[in-house]
Write a structure and sequence with these properties.
EC number: 2.6.1.42
CATH superfamily of the largest domain: D-amino Acid Aminotransferase, subunit A, domain 2
Pfam family, one: Aminotran_4
GO molecular function, one term: branched-chain-amino-acid transaminase activity
CATH topology of the largest domain: D-amino Acid Aminotransferase, Chain A, domain 2
Helix content: 10-25%
Structural class: alpha+beta
Protein name: Branched-chain-amino-acid aminotransferase
Strand content: 25-35%
CATH class of the largest domain: Alpha Beta
Keywords: Amino-acid biosynthesis, Aminotransferase, Branched-chain amino acid biosynthesis, Pyridoxal phosphate, Transferase
Largest sheet: 10 strands, mixed
Number of strands: 19
Order of helices and strands: EEEEHEEEHHEEEHEEEEHEHEEEHE
């Protein structure tokens, strides 16, 4: 005799397989576009302040553990309503990216190496256990948004449309576990040059007692929790007359980052060529897109490409190695230190003029025009590639409006 279970399965027979519903991934083809009823005036480029003026529209898509990612929306820019217990408020479950769109010579908007932003955002999202998403589909949504907001892209040298893709955990519970609810959104703001009055040397205060990141931590991911602990040390540095903190780590006081940018040093060799050093990606340093691009361009000079202003006979030897404060002062004392510069999405390239370390102050070599020779060459070549004026390895990606 076969006894039937209440769920219809026969006791003693092979168990039935549970039906597992496949959760929906982000699908850009399903995007619903709702246009703003009225468009905001675009401010003159000279009045732009980074991060304060936002465009008319935004991308938004939500995730829940039953259905997965919902229907993407492009809708008017506006507030987001969240439960007060959402994990973003309680446990800082947030990852983001920084990208830029430019106007090319053909009038089309374009992005700079966007696939690398998407790859990094997926890694950052996984590190804090937020729901995964199809990065290719997110990039399609970003392109649609940029095409829609193309009137906001300033068509001037050094200007761009800054793009901030963000994912936040929205699980409405203060229980300490990963968020199984999320919102993925993208906002944009037009921006001018990082230094509105022209490039100027940055001053750094070396900080070792309050670290930005540590081995096994989250320094290599673009997470909101990496930035908040830097605010107080930055205030202390400003009180002492410095622009940014130079983040040190370990008993040897080796350099990781400066502010929120990657750190580079140029050292003259005995053969009069140049070594270009930057700290290695050891897990404590964000793998910056500008950092990777600078290393590639510097290594390509002069064999694969010739950087502007630099002699054809000059060779740049790139190295990823630990740089200690002892190294820095030793190169300076020997007269071999020629430049210190920083790189990142916002500033692209910025020269360092002064570094404070304890009771010591290192005055970097003076440079004309606010940038040293190598920094200037890299800045001009990078911005020309970003704006589509120079082609290099397909880094500049046009968007069809």
């Amino acid at each position: 005799m076969t006894v039937k279970a209440t769920n219809g399965a026969a006791l003693g027979s092979a168990p039935t397989q549970a039906v597992v519903q496949k959760l929906q991934d982000v699908d850009a083809s399903k995007v619903v576009v709702t246009l703003a009823e009225s468009l905001k005036p675009v401010p003159p480029p000279e009045e732009l302040v980074f991060g304060q003026t936002f465009t008319d529209h935004m991308v938004m898509v939500t995730y829940d553990p039953v259905n997965g990612w919902g229907t993407p929306e492009i809708k008017p820019y506006g507030p987001i309503s969240l439960d007060p217990a959402s994990s973003i408020f309680q446990y800082s479950t947030s990852a983001f990216e920084g990208m830029k769109a430019y106007v090319g010579p053909d009038g089309k908007p374009r992005l700079f190496r966007p696939e690398l932003n998407m790859l990094r955002m997926k890694r950052s999202t996984a590190r804090i256990a937020l729901p995964a998403f199809d990065a290719d589909e997110l990039l399609k949504l970003i392109k649609k948004l940029v095409a829609l907001e193309s009137r906001w892209i300033p068509n001037l040298k050094g200007h761009s449309l800054y793009i901030r893709p963000t994912i936040i955990g929205t699980r409405p519970s203060i229980g300490v576990r990963a968020s199984d609810h999320a919102i993925l959104y993208v906002i944009c703001c037009p921006t001018g040059p990082y230094f509105r009055t022209g490039p100027k040397p940055v001053s750094l205060l070396a900080v070792g007692e309050q670290v930005r990141s540590w081995p096994g931590g989250t320094g290599e991911f673009k997470l909101s929790i990496n930035y908040t602990p830097t605010f107080h040390p930055q205030q202390l540095a400003a009180e002492k007359g410095y622009d940014q903190c130079l983040w040190l780590l370990g008993e040897d006081s080796h350099i990781t980052e400066a502010g929120a940018m990657n750190f580079f040093v140029v050292v003259k060799r005995d053969d009069d060529h140049l070594d270009v050093y930057t700290p290695p990606l050891d897990g404590t340093i964000l793998p910056g897109l500008t950092r990777a691009s600078v290393l590639t361009l510097a290594a390509a000079h002069p064999g694969q490409t010739t950087l502007p202003y630099l002699p054809h006979t000059l060779k740049l030897h790139t190295h990823e190695r630990l740089i200690t404060m002892t190294d820095l002062f030793s190169w300076h004392a020997s007269g071999h230190l020629t430049e210190i510069f920083l790189v990142g999405t916002a500033a692209v390239v910025a020269t360092v003029g002064r570094v404070g370390f304890g009771d010591k102050v290192l005055e970097a070599p003076k440079c004309e025009g606010g940038l040293g020779p190598v920094a200037r060459a890299l800045y001009d070549r990078l911005t020309d590639i970003q704006e589509g004026k120079v082609e290099f390895q397909g880094w500049s990606v046009p968007i069809d409006a």
